[in-house]
Every structure is written in C-alpha cells, then in structure tokens.
Amino acid sequence: MRQSDLTPLQRGLIFGGAAMMLSMSMGIRQSWGLFQPHMIRDIGISAADFSLAIALQNIIWGITQPFVGMLVDHHGARRIAVAGTLLYAAGVAVSIFATSALVLILGAGVCVGIALSCTSSNMAMSSTARATSPAKRSVTLGSVSALGSLGLVLASPLAQSLITSSGWQIAMVSFLGLVAVMLPAAFLAGAADKIKIEVPHGTQQSVGEAIREAAAHPGYVTLVLAFFVCGLQLVFITTHLPTYLEICGIDPVVGSTSLALIGLFNVGGTYFFGWLGGRYSKRVLLGGIYILRSLVITAYFLVPPTATSTLVFAAAMGALWLSVTPLYTGLVIHLFGLRFMTTLIGIMFFSHQVGAFLGAWGGGLIYSAIGSYDLAWKWGVAIGLVAGVFQMMMNMRPSPRLAAEGAPKAQAAALSR
Hints:
By secondary structure, the protein is mostly helical.
C-alpha cells in the first residue's frame, strides 16, 4: 500500500492511535516525580536512590531506542509497540510492590525504560510520518505530538489526587488503567506498517550504511549533541520540581498542577511549532526553543518561587516542551529520507537520554551533597544557551545519496526549511 492509497478514516486511525499511545506513555512517565517524597518516606530510600531509578529509566530508554528503531524499520511498529505496552504494565506493577531501591530500579528503571523505547515519541512519529504527505508532514507531526501531550494533563492530577486521598500505591494502580488504553492505540498506530516507502532503484541501503552516512553528516552530529541538552533540561524539571517546591514550603498540589499545565500548554506549543516548521527554518526554530527554555529556567530560579510564579513557569516551559519533536523529525527526514528515520532518531534519542540521566541523577546528587538545586539549574542553563546557538548554525544540506535520488519538488519544498 502506498501512502496516497490511504482513506481519510485509515489515516485518522493511525494518527489517533499514535497520539493516544504517545499521550499515555509520556503522561505516566512525566508524573513519576510526584511519587518521590512518598516513596522516600515509605520505602526508606534516599532522594539519590529515587533519582538513580529515574535516571536509569532514561538511560535504558536511550540505550535501547536505536535497537528498537532498527527492529521497527525491519519488522514494523505494531508488534514492537504492543510488546512494549505489556512491559510498561509490568514495570508499573513491580513499582507498586517496591520495598527497596533495587526493586524500584527493576520496575521504574529497567522495565519502564525499555517500554518507553517501544511506545513513545519515536514510535509515534514513525507511524505518523509514514502516513502523511510531505507537504503536510510538519503540521501533522506537530498535531500528533500536541495531542500526545494531553496524557500529562490527565495523569498528573489523577496521580496527585489519589496520592493525597488513598496513597501512592493506589495512584500507581490507576496508571495500570492508563497503560491498558495504550494496547488498542498501539495496534491502530501499527497499521502504518502496511505503507511502503518507495526507494529509487539502485539506492537501497542497509541499516549500517544509513548509520555511517548519518555519522558523517555535520548537521546530524549537531542534532545529536543538541538533543543531549534537551533531555538534561526536561528530565531535571519533571524529576525534581515537586521536591524543590516541597523544600520551599509550597503546597504539593501546585507541583501536580504545574505538570498538568506543562502538558496543556504543550498542546498549543507543539502544534504551533509544527505549523511554523512547515513555513520557516526548522533549525532556527529548534535552536530558538533551546535558548528560550534556558531563559525561562533562569527567570524562575533566580527568585524565591511562589505558587503563581511556578504556574507561569510551567505554562512557559509547556509551550516549549515537546515542540522540538516535529522539528527534529522533519530535519532528519530532510537530511536522509524516511527509510531509516526510526533508527536515526533512535540514535539521537540515546544522546537525549544520556542528558536525561544526568538531569535526573545529577540533580539528585547535587541536592544531596549541598542541599540546593542552584548549581544544577545554572549548569543546565549554560549548556542550553550554547546548544541553541550551535543548533541554529547546523548544516542543512541533504545527504549526497538523497540529493542524487532527486526527491520530488513538492517534498523538497516542504522539507528544505
């Protein structure tokens, strides 16, 4: 089946499944920080132990993402996404019964980390990109990413409400219900497997050749390095913001509301930047997001937080949260085409998750050592500004192979920015 053969209903089901799978997967993952104070108290672990579990979740997600990407490019997304959903449920279940740091690491760290490789943004963007035309790809990627942000709007308030009324274990049981929703969503998104990617005769690549081609491209190297900073900044916030607010004496409800606001404003921000990416330079927009994030973090942490300033901070960060997704996906497709997109973004995501590991665990170590998050956010801001500037200057020339294939003019016009 070709992409042009899809009916509007088939296309809508693929987009809807991808958005729902992404929404539930990321909503649960980004709400883990709400459990930190309660698990520290009840299980008898330290902030560094909890941070290590979340850091390992992120680094395992990153390590496995390139290999999952290869499996998807070779075997299709459906089976991988369904298996990942089942593993996600196992990870949440193990975490419910955690009695030590080691058990928490097994559930929240190992199981959920692998599951995220199979159910989150890379998988959703792969199915979406296959099912949409080049001219509409940027705005469609932005739309699916935006809808995928709604999970945090649901998961965070749900978790905080149940933590307050019934305890953190019951709150995690509710997460199993959200994981159950991912099963049919994964099946629907996997219908994109039937769409064939047309490759001109004589230009077929192996996965090894595609990786070597990307590694030799300066623009791809810039994307990989800048994505490291993206992971560091975002996971530092989701992991440590609830604890930071508790230290400052702010009601825990503000923390959960902040995470929900991040998800809510991310809907508009991601769609908006996806729309802009179809009209203006994707590299400039992407670099600008990194710089804006750094400025927003600086403005928030320079003064003592209040409930109002925290909510404003969450709204501003939310508008910049997953808004990078349609831009970096479009850039990878522009440089190398669709064939091994999932693998190449998976490698980028490994870099992202190394940054996430340092953001989660490093933030906990710094706080445990000096009793303050000041040093952590200052380092995050500094490297964010550097990454933004370099991202704006990345090499935008498509790979020689892709240029030689003579992409249709409509595709070149849609993706060349």
